[in-house]
Amino acid sequence: MNTNYQLDENLMAELKMKSVKSEKEICGFILESNDFVEVKNVHPDPKNYFLISPADYIWEKGAILFHSHPSHIDTYGFSKWDLENQFYFQKKMLLYSVKYDEFYFKAP
Fold it and tell me: What is the model's pTM?
């Protein structure tokens, strides 16, 4: 894991499994209870980007924004688009890259 963020092993396995099974970027929120709440990716190009509707956004203070990069995405770590989303929402963010089989974490 390319991060200093400690994640529950069962949750990490769940996020990997969901990410590997999807051709699109999956997205959602990790709650302080270590539960993952998946939300719909509303981006017009969900195979290459993620976008969460403000109506689906979880504003809970400890929630962490999660999304995946499918195996066809070559970007190592966070993309410019990812960082723009984080700046807008001001949330901690966790990414899983299927291609590199790594998690990445970034605080705002």
Answer: 0.90
Q: Are strands 36-39 and 27-30 parallel, antiparallel or unpaired?
A: antiparallel
Determine contact, residues 68/15, Cβ cutoff 8 Å.
Answer: yes
In the predicted model, is pLDDT for residue 1 greater than 50? Answer: no
Q: Which pLDDT does position 4 carry in this prediction?
A: 52
76-to-65, 72, 105 alpha-carbon distances in Å: 18, 12, 12
CA 16 to chain centre: 11
Backbone angles phi, psi at 105, to 5 degrees: -125, 140
> What secondary structure, in 3-state letters, does 33-69 show?
CCCEEEECCCCCCCCCCCCCCCCCCCCCCCCEEEEEE
Burial profile 73-107: b = 16 or more Cβ within 10 angstroms, e = fewer: beeeebbeebeebbeebebbbbbbbbebeebbbbe
